[in-house]
Amino acid sequence: MKALRSVPLLTLLALTSCGIPATGVVQAGGPASGTLPMTRVYFVENGALVAMPRTTELPGDPEAALQLLMAGPLAGEGRSGRLSTEVPGVPTAMALPPATDGPGNPPSPDTPTVTAKRDAMTIRLPPGMDRLSDTGVRQIVCTAAAAYRLTRPSDATLTAEVTDGGGRQVTASDEGCPDR
C-alpha cells in the first residue's frame, strides 16, 4: 500500500523537473509597444496629391498632422523619389514648435490652428503662409481631414474653410482626396 502512495509523488516530481534550469529575470530591452500611430500627410508627385504615412504622437490631431506637412517630404520619398510640396514650411527664423501647447495655453502664432465640428473644419494658417496655390490648399485640407477622420470616421464629405496667413479665405472639401 505504501508503494501506491509514492506513485503520485514520483509522477509529480517527474513532471515538474523537466530539465530546464531556473533562471532569474532576463533583461531583453524595453516593453512591447505595438505599432506606432500613423497619419497620412499629402505631398505632390507629378502634379497629383499622394498620401504618405507619417508616425505621430497625436493621432487624430489635425494641427499635429499639418506640422508634419510643413516639415516637408523626406528625401527620396514617393514612387519617383521626387515628392514636393506647395505648402511653405515654417520660416527659418522660427523654430518648429512642439505639437501641443498644453492645456490652458494659447496656441503659438507660428502654427496652424484647426477647429472642427462634425463635418466642418476651420483652418487658420500662421503669418508667412499666404498666397497658397490651389494644390497647396488641397494638401492642407486633405492632411487635416485625414488626421481628423482617424478618431472620428465618417463617410460624409468634410468641408474646410482655410484662412491663409494673409487673411485670404478659401473653402474646399476632402472629396477627391486620394485614399479617402
Mean pLDDT level: 80
Low-confidence region ranges: 92-105
Per DSSP E runs of 2 or more residues, the count of β-strands stands at 6
- Nearest-angstrom radius of gyration? 27 Å
Strand order in the largest sheet: 3-4-5-6
Instruction: Please state the structural category.
Output: alpha+beta
Please summarize the sheet with the most strands.
4 strands, mixed
Reading the helices and strands in chain order gives HEEHEEHEE
Helical content (DSSP H or I, runs of 4+): 10-25%
Summarize the structure in words.
This protein is α+β, with helices and mostly antiparallel strands and 180 residues long. It has a domain at 38-93 and 108-173. Helix content is 23%, strand content 20%. It is built from three helices and six strands; from the N terminus they run αββαββαββ. A four-stranded mixed beta sheet has the order 3-4-5-6, covered by helices on one side. Strand 4 (120-124), helix 3 and strand 5 form a beta-alpha-beta unit. Helix 2 (62-70) packs antiparallel against helix 3 (134-151). The termini are far apart.
Key descriptive features of the protein:
3 helices, 20% strand, GerMN domain-containing protein, signal
Question: What secondary-structure arrangement, pairings included, does this model have?
Answer:
Elements: H1 2-16, E1 38-45, E2 48-55, H2 62-70, E3 113-117, E4 120-124, H3 134-151, E5 159-163, E6 169-173
Parallel strand pairs: 4-5
Antiparallel strand pairs: 1-2, 3-4, 5-6
